Amino acid sequence: MENKTINEFVVIKALEDSVNVIGLTRGTDTKFHHSEKLDSGEVMIAQFTEHTSAIKVRGAAKIYTAYGEVESESKKG
Ligand code: TRP
């Protein structure tokens, strides 16, 4: 795997309280391995690593990646 992929960062800014940033494992099994709770206005800067192949965001947040920006939405509406 290219190191570029491993080094990539995503920036997640919570737009409400209790946004969860969940890391999913790399490899044959895809499982949650870490969940980080962000409150409104809090920012997390995360990398894809040897252990993390995917990141799930639950709740309303702005997500900035090398490919552009996207907004996740709140389930509460
Ligand atoms: N121990 C994890 C790892 O090195 C930490 C981590 C990195 C993480 N990126 C993440 C946790 C994204 C949650 C979301 O892979």
UniProtKB/TrEMBL annotation:
Q: Which UniProt keywords apply?
A: RNA-binding, Transcription, Transcription regulation
Q: Which Pfam families match?
A: TrpBP (PF02081)
Q: Which GO terms describe its molecular function?
A: RNA binding
UniProt entry tagged with the keyword RNA-binding? yes
Q: Which domain of life is it from?
A: Bacteria
What is known about what this protein does?
Answer: Required for transcription attenuation control in the Trp operon. This trans-acting factor seems to recognize a 10 bases nucleotide sequence in the Trp leader transcript causing transcription termination. Binds the leader RNA only in presence of L-tryptophan.
Q: How would you summarize the oligomeric state and partners of this protein? A: Oligomer of 11 identical subunits arranged in doughnut-like structure.
- Official protein name in the record: Transcription attenuation protein MtrB
